[in-house]
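HUMAN:
Could you generate one sequence with tokenized structure?
ASSISTANT:
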Amino acid sequence: VPLGIFLIVHLFTNARAIVSKSSYDEAVRSLSELPYLVVLEVVGILLPLAFHGIYGLVLAFEGRPNVGKYPYNRNWMYVAQRVTGVVALAFIGWHLSHLWVPRVLGKLAPIDFYDELVRRLSTPTAGVPLTALGYVFGTAACVFHFANGLWGFMTSWGVTPTRRSQRLGATISGLVGVVVLVLGTAAAIFFAT
């Protein structure tokens, strides 16, 4: 759940680009001025993400999906959770290599993020905006993984103990996912166009 909160904040920050370049730059500037930012990012985001990712890879490759024998909705969601987790982890690594690593190494200033995202996402390869498509699909994988994981969290931690409350939890998780997905993909499409 804490990583999901970071995902929401991150996508809301990126969506500020739709308002204006100055709004996005102000949001990035205010975040970049946090004291001990790199320590906060490493300890508060990257280490938990690395643990979640490594543990998730173990679960993904040790899991035994049974959708062939029992093609129920929750069995498909089990498979989709593992697939989107692997895709999300690869996307996050790729995304970090484009922006976070160059920033930490002093090769990219936060004030240049907007222009860098526009350049990367709007440059086509053989006439196709592959980077923009990668961002849209990567964002979709992250958001699905978060929303489905939120439902799983509520179910396994007893927040939604009854079948009715689990359906309500699925609806709430789905709606949160749709809102976050719209924000994230709108920002990616905005930078690409």
